[in-house]
Amino acid sequence: MIADTLKGRDFVIVGIQSIDDEVGNIKNIAYEIAKNNRVVFVHLPVDRITYLRSKHNPSIKKKLEVLKGKREALEKVGENLWSYYPRIITESINWIKAASAFDFLNKINSKRFAKEIQKAIKLLGFNNVILINDNDFFRSQYLKEFLEPHLNIYYMRDYFTYLSYWKTHGERLEPQLIEKTDLAVTNSIFLTNHCKKYNENAYYVGQGCDLSLFTKEKVKPTPNDIAPIPRPIIGYVGSLVYTRLCIDTISYIANERKDWNLVFIGPEDEVFKNSKLHELPNIFFLGKKPISEAPTYLDHFDVCINPQLININTVGNYPLKIDEYLAMGKPVVATETEAMEIFKDHVHLAKDKEDYILKIEKALSEINNEELQTERRKFAASHSWENNVKEIYKAIIALEAKYN
Fold first, then answer.
1. Most buried residue, 7, 33, 290, 296, by most Cβ within 10 Å?
2. Are residues 18 and 166 in the same domain?
């Protein structure tokens, strides 16, 4: 077995997420790897500006306690899994526009960060470490040089250089990091192809999901706010953000098929709140709900949709909500993107707003098809964290075989 082949190794994980986050890819990956290997999850250090504003930021409480000596930097959080908080404050440099000045100071930050990681490695007695970097192309830019790990892996799960905070230097630094890393692994075909521009050792490893909530057993009695809405119900669960969802497509569907009712579950940004969608009589915004209620609302949908807006920020994203829809056995219609290619046998992919009408009509004809429901659930279940990490192991084994 793959898990047995890669067993008893030492992993160091760094990245922009925290192991204390309620959800997060790298957190789940860390716990899965720790089933067969030793893992230390190293949090990013506090930067100067964040430290100065710390009294307004309760999310860094643990980091501050470590800095003040009120808490140990190294903490065991699971079998074979440790959490480490660096006892340093790095300089806030993202405001610097000049590339040469930024790189000079970033290298100093990275060197200090590497020294803290070395302390954790020494305390735990790790050897020949495998370093996994989750999308941190700033502070972890030089860890390969300073730590000299056995393997350096860049895990790309999103296209962050599109966002304003990372854009100035990220568009330059991320490709540099991908190029010099030993191995790049991603959770979407689009991102794999992006990494292959800079490194031939780039692999698609899929996405892990915890779908234990999304079962018929978790369905509760029909909520009062959706009960009066006539069928068919075309539904969406998730944040309603104008940079990620196509308002024009939603409006077109509602206007073209007034006999369909569109139901949206989730918080709205200001653009959605002020949009003309609220004026359409067959569109219902039911607001944000606890995650525990999601299966109940999904169960009441006839067809689930993901009317994604195509831009550089969305085209490569792995659509976790699609797995949740499929886990409930629901017919799904989603915007056709490169990242959606792996779903093509189980999801109706729409090329444009006109195609959405045709694909939803097709999906509605499948509502009572139990064979398709079973296939959807089975496909979604294959996207487990165990399978995700097995694919990472395969990539590591292939790379080691290539160069040994």
1. 33
2. yes
| Number of domains composing the chain | 2
Based on the fold, state whether residues 161 and 65 are members of the same structural domain: yes
| β-bridge pairing 261-265 and 183-186 | unpaired
Range of the domain at 249: 216-381
Decide if 327 contacts 306 (C-beta within 8 A). Answer: no
Q: Residues with Cβ < 8 Å from 6, sequence gap 6 or more?
A: 36, 37, 393, 396, 397
| Chain mean position to CA 92 | 25
CATH of the domain at 341: 3.40.50.2000
Both 298 and 352 in one domain: the answer is: yes
- For 271-291, the pLDDT digits (tens) are 999 999 999 999 999 999 999
Q: What is the total residue count of the chain?
A: 404
Q: In angstroms, what CA-CA distances link 292 with 216, 224, 322, 377?
A: 12, 16, 17, 19
Distance CA 388, CA 278 (A): 40
Are 75 and 37 in contact by the 8 Å Cβ rule? The answer is no
Q: What is the pLDDT of residue 22?
A: 73
Q: Which of 162, 152, 165 is nearest to 190 (CA)?
A: 162
pTM, entire model = 0.88
Burial-class residue 248 by CB neighbours within 10 Å (0-12, 13-18, 19+).
Answer: exposed
Q: Can you give the pLDDT at residue 4?
A: 56
Same domain, 141 and 190: yes
Burial class (CB in 10 A: 0-12, 13-18, 19+), 285: middle
Q: Are residues 179 and 235 in the same domain?
A: no
CA-wise closest residue to 208 among 6, 387, 377: 387
pLDDT digits (tens, 9 = 90+) for 8-22: 999 999 999 988 887
DSSP 148-159: --SEEEEEE-S-
pLDDT of residue 312: 79
What is the rounded distance in angstroms from the CA atom of residue 59 to the CA atom of residue 62? 8
Reference 106, options 19, 162, 179, 168; nearest CA is 168
Instruction: Report residues of the chain scoring pLDDT below 50.
Output: none
